């Protein structure tokens, strides 16, 4: 199942510097492993924001939920999920 996921990050200004550094390092490692595994298909930065738009290809809703809840930055995120379906005008679908 394909999902578009928009993630807006809002780290607290007073977050301890060591906690911030550790959290960001764990987030990067986790997301890159999911990319290598093929579940996190692509990730795009949204210009001018601390946000990204990502495409996930996972077996079901529960797997996406599990991935998102395990993001180290999850406590500092607002997340919008949109399920995706093939568009009938997409020439790559032929």
From TrEMBL:
Entry keyword set: Aromatic hydrocarbons catabolism, Isomerase
Pathway membership, UniProt: Aromatic compound metabolism; beta-ketoadipate pathway; 5-oxo-4,5-dihydro-2-furylacetate from catechol: step 3/3
Reaction it catalyzes: (S)-muconolactone = (4,5-dihydro-5-oxofuran-2-yl)-acetate
Keyword hit for tRNA processing: no
Gene Ontology MF terms in the entry: muconolactone delta-isomerase activity
Class in the EC hierarchy, top level: isomerase
The keyword Flavoprotein belongs to this UniProt entry's keyword annotation: no
Domain Muconolactone isomerase: 1-90
UniProt EC number: 5.3.3.4
Protein family (similarity comment): Belongs to the muconolactone Delta-isomerase family.
Subunit record text: Homodecamer.
Protein known as: Muconolactone Delta-isomerase
Gene that specifies this protein: catC
């Amino acid at each position: 199942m394909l999902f578009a996921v928009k993630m807006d990050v809002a780290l607290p200004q007073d977050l301890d510097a060591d906690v911030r550094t550790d959290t960001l390092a764990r987030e990067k490692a986790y997301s890159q492993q999911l990319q290598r595994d093929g579940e996190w298909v692509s990730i795009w930065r949204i210009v001018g924001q601390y946000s990204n738009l990502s495409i996930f290809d996972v077996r079901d809703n529960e797997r996406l939920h599990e991935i998102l809840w395990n993001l180290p930055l999850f406590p500092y995120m607002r997340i919008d999920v949109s399920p995706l379906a093939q568009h009938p005008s997409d020439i790559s679908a032929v």
